[in-house]
Amino acid sequence: MASGETAARRDNPRHNWLSTEGWTIYYATAADVYHHPHHFTTPIRHALGRGQ
Fold first, then answer.
1. How many Å apart are CA 39 and CA 43, to the nearest integer?
2. For the segment 5-38, what is each residue's pLDDT rounded down to a tens digit?
3. What distances in angstroms separate CA 37 from CA 25, 31, 48, 51, one per listed residue?
4. Does residue 49 sit in helix, strand or coil?
5. Which of 2, 25, 31, 50 could form a disulfide with 6 if both were Cys (CB 3.0 to 4.6 A apart)?
6. 3-state class (DSSP) for residue 23
7. Does the pLDDT value for residue 52 go beyond 70?
């Protein structure tokens, strides 16, 4: 698994391309998934309700 600058060089252009193409990107950590799922499900539910 790449981390730091290597990951940024790989991920930033991909993130920018997805954003340009109209995608909305949400990030979640393992702690969010297992202990605080509302940290990422709530914004996604709101976006879906707005039709995004």
1. 8
2. 888 899 999 999 999 999 999 999 999 999 999 9
3. 16, 8, 16, 21
4. helix
5. 2
6. coil
7. no
